[in-house]
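ok, trying the design again with the full structure, not the truncated one.
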């Protein structure tokens, strides 16, 4: 791949990211949620899929929020009946966060149309091409996370 092809791919990834941001901002506004709320719900669901539930501390770390900001966000999600808080059976001091049925319903309403469109797009590619795209995107996600960590490490604020 030539440098201009690499640059074009980087621009397309940026545009895709911006398009998904616009989608999330617009749909979130319809439900009265903020971008951080949606990111938190995605993290909570991903934790649950892996067989665990996150604590407020986990969410603070994942979202890079202070403890007070995380508490305010969780209070907002609880007011919307999108999360439930429950004490850990292993350590009663730890409060775990679980998505509610309302959160799942809202998620399907918000992201169903997006998922449908992405499935329609994916029908244009062979299984081998999709495997290559999945590998690329997985590696790109790791690259973005590594770039963020490098930026934070070299930041004058550290």
């Amino acid at each position: 791949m030539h440098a201009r092809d690499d640059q074009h791919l980087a621009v397309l990834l940026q545009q895709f990211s911006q398009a998904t941001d616009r989608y999330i901002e617009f749909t979130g506004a319809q439900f009265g949620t903020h971008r951080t709320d949606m990111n938190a719900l995605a993290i909570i669901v991903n934790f649950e899929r892996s067989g665990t539930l996150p604590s407020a501390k986990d969410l603070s770390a994942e979202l890079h929020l202070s403890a007070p900001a995380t508490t305010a966000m969780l209070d907002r999600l609880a007011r919307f009946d999108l999360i439930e808080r429950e004490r850990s059976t292993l350590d009663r001091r730890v409060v775990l966060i679980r998505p509610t049925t309302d959160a799942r319903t809202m998620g399907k309403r918000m992201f169903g149309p997006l998922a449908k469109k992405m499935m329609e797009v994916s029908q244009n590619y062979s299984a081998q091409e999709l495997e290559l795209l999945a590998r690329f995107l997985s590696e790109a996600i790791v690259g973005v996370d590594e770039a963020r960590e490098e930026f934070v490490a070299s930041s004058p604020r550290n």
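Keeping the full-length input from now on. The first helix runs from residue 3 to 31.
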